[in-house]
Design brief:
heterodimer, A: 477 residues, Dna Ligase, domain 1, 3 domains, 5-stranded antiparallel β-sheet, elongated, B: 233 residues, alpha/beta, Rossmann fold, 8-stranded mixed β-sheet, two-stranded antiparallel sheet, 6 helices, globular
Chain lengths: 477, 233
């Protein structure tokens, strides 16, 4: 079976940065991004509400403010835009592994190989569209056999073209200004009286190259698929790190749940795309003045389930004391791990809605603190205090269960022995226990089981150094 | 009226006299005498059992270790929530409990006796027990509740019902005997006798049990103190 023909889908994001600032899908205030150079400041881009009152790209800020006094201004940041584009690329990775970034604000996906999986282009496009709408980005799509044509169609009208013959027709009417040529070439073409791409394509190739340089004809070759156009393929990173700036400072943890959910959903989307999970996360709550609050989030096994991650993170966040208002959240996952799928038992497996024991223990550990949920282990040691170990959660219990001695041992052991109550009756003993010869001071104890008048039973010892002085060390529960 | 009937049928929120008491599923206690004594023939599953005990050292945990040993040996998970002191694993292992299937949840470190946090720790213990019961992935959940209101106990009872086949047992102090409780089975242990305070079906009264003695340890002749010696303290 031959490989499916290449088909490129371009997602154009005309207002990537502006859309990322929107907090909800509802009515937005007029908002614009400001670019600056030296003392000059001009509108880089404006949202629909701002454009409605006459604010346009390239206007000086003073003019824009005169047109719309309520205009909210934010600085344009190219680095932030690149970051957003990369985040979106991670999200789009689920649709195609052949994905490349087309800065400043477009993504190119090779979808020819994905059509079989999604059952055709229109189901894929629907999923893509609903996903983008959920994320709150405005977008334009274009589909074509070459990457440049996909970008051109996304800018034009969102047409879908599947072969080169149809492509020639589709681009005939494209204005010269929509071509990705440098400004000098476009100006030259306009001055030569050319308006549409169709007119440009009718010109003899060699004279076009002579007049406007090889870049122009090379562009047209790549656009029409006459020469190869290799793309640098996007590679998702092996770790996750994302920061979310809050619009307003937040001083209670309950209001942090919503932005946190957004971060975790982005993480989960990346994990699904990579078929990975995480077991350790680091959440940073960044404050305007004080040091960032660090919150480690831990799962017992790698998981990529957004609901599960959120449940644990939420439990922990609710316990967190905030020293100060929070300005930004940052979520780090240092390592993406393969997910262990045990598949569960077909017949006796937990029914839907019930969670595995690991999830429950995670939740308990998140709320009560990790040291408060543990298991017990034995150590081969004759000293009573040393025969027991606490095994922290996630650490595997010792494989071999040590054989206990047939000696009286209490079910409850005090961490520190204390003076025994009076009026005890010794029942059996003694059993002499000494500490190691390497330890100082030398400790020798004679242990007895004892009973008081009420019938409660104790494990007591007498120190050889202080005969007659009895200490309580445990209870026979 | 019809929908009320349906509700009563589908959810065991209200105990009705015509319900057959033997429908109760139980887990063997590990002792033939105790099995015969308890209504249903063992520790009840899917409902809350209360055990009122006079305190640590009364053999209150030894009553349950045979059942815990049996469940852990079957590969089931068990949890102790808010034990009053650190449980001592050598003794648990000697009683046959598989330590790898046992989890300890201690909301406050047992050593600290901070009075101010006492109430809070009780709430956390209730919450933890409820989560464990609801998940249905733990076969036995033992919780120590020095203070608990009937409402909180009802939540546990409901959680036990939600969890399905989970053995939920709450240790409570003796003086709570005359308080009302939503638990399906209430037992009182006084170091020798196990008395049923409340149960579904007919009340079997009380059972005298030998307090499980620790393994005998014969003192050698030359040791300074003999057994059964009254301390001069």
């Amino acid at each position: 079976m031959s490989a499916p023909p290449l088909l490129w889908l371009c997602i154009g994001l005309p207002a990537l940065l502006l859309d990322s600032l929107a907090t909800d899908a509802g009515e937005q205030p007029p908002r614009a991004l400001v670019a600056s150079q030296g003392s000059q400041r001009w509108i880089h881009s404006a949202n629909r509400e701002a454009r409605a009152s006459g604010v346009g790209n390239g206007q000086p800020v003073a003019t824009a403010m005169a047109l719309q006094p309520n205009l909210q201004l934010q600085a344009y940041c190219a680095a932030r835009e690149a970051e957003l584009l990369e985040q979106l690329a991670l999200w789009a990775y689920r649709f195609s592994s052949q994905l490349s970034l087309a800065p400043p604000a477009a993504l190119l996906l090779e979808v020819g190989a994905s059509l079989r999986l999604f059952g055709g282009l229109s189901p894929l496009r629907q999923q893509l569209q609903s996903g983008l709408e959920q994320l709150g980005y405005r977008y334009r799509l274009g589909v074509a056999p070459t990457p440049l044509a996909a970008r051109l169609l996304a800018r034009l009208n969102g047409a879908e073209v599947f072969d080169r013959a149809a492509l020639e027709v589709a681009i005939t009417d494209a204005p010269i200004d929509t071509l990705l040529l440098d400004e000098i070439t476009r100006k030259g073409l306009r001055q030569a009286g050319l308006r549409s791409t169709g007119q440009l394509l009718q010109l003899p190739r060699d004279s076009l190259a002579r007049r406007f340089g090889p870049a122009c004809s090379h562009y047209l070759d790549r656009l029409r698929g006459h020469s190869d156009d290799p793309q640098s393929i996007f590679k998702p990173p092996e770790h996750f790190e994302q920061r979310l700036e809050l619009l307003q400072e937040v001083d209670n943890t309950a209001s942090l749940i919503f932005p946190l959910r957004r971060l975790i959903e982005t993480l989960a989307a990346q994990l699904i795309a990579r078929d990975c999970g995480v077991s350790r996360l680091q959440l940073q709550l960044q404050h305007p003045r004080s040091e960032a609050t660090l919150m480690p989030i831990r799962l017992l096994e790698p998981s990529g389930d957004a609901a599960r991650l959120l449940r644990v993170a939420r439990q922990q966040l609710e316990q967190q004391q905030l020293p100060e208002a929070v300005r930004a959240l940052q979520l780090n996952a240092p390592q993406l791990l393969p997910v262990v799928r045990d598949g569960g038992d077909l017949f006796t497996g937990a029914s839907a809605g019930q969670r595995g024991h690991r999830e429950v223990l995670e939740q308990l550990a998140a709320r009560l603190g990790e040291s408060h949920v543990h298991q017990l282990g034995l150590r081969d040691d004759h000293r009573p205090e040393c025969a027991a170990v606490r095994l922290p959660l996630g650490q595997n219990a010792p494989g071999v269960e040590a054989t206990p001695l047939p000696l009286p041992r209490p079910l409850w052991l005090l961490e520190q022995p204390r003076p025994a109550p009076t009026g005890l009756l010794l029942e059996s003993g003694p059993e002499r226990l000494e500490n190691g010869w390497w330890e100082t001071p030398d400790v020798r104890r004679d242990y007895y089981t004892a009973r008081d008048q009420q019938g409660l039973r104790y494990w007591v010892f007498e120190r050889r150094e202080q005969p007659g002085q009895f200490y309580l060390h445990g209870f026979f529960g | 009226m019809h929908s009320l009937d349906q509700l009563l049928q589908s959810q065991p929120l209200l105990w009705r006299g015509n319900k057959h008491p033997t429908a109760q599923r139980t887990a063997p206690t590990g002792s033939a005498a105790l099995d015969a004594f308890l209504p249903g023939g063992g520790w009840p599953l899917g409902s809350l059992t209360e055990l009122l005990s006079p305190g640590t050292g009364s053999g209150e945990l030894s009553l349950l270790t045979p059942a815990l040993a049996r469940e852990t040996a079957c590969g089931e998970r068990v949890a102790l929530v808010a034990p009053p002191l650190p449980p001592y694993p050598p003794a648990l292992a000697a009683a046959g409990v598989l330590l790898s299937r046992l989890w300890i949840i201690s909301p406050e470190p047992p050593a600290s006796h901070a009075k101010t946090k006492g109430n809070n720790s009780g709430k956390e213990a209730l919450w933890a027990a409820e989560q464990l019961l609801r998940s249905g992935t733990f076969k036995a959940v033992l919780v120590w509740l020095p203070q608990a209101t009937p409402t909180q106990l009802r939540r546990l009872q409901l959680a036990a019902e939600t969890g399905g086949s989970c053995w939920a047992l709450a240790y409570r102090p003796e003086h709570t005997a005359d308080q009302s409780s939503p638990a399906a089975l209430r037992l009182q242990w006084d170091k020798r006798h196990l008395r049923v305070l409340k149960c579904r079906g007919s009340n079997p009264g009380q059972l005298q049990l030998q307090q499980p003695a620790p393994p005998a340890h014969t003192p050698a002749h030359h040791w300074p103190r003999a057994a059964n010696e009254q301390l001069p303290l």
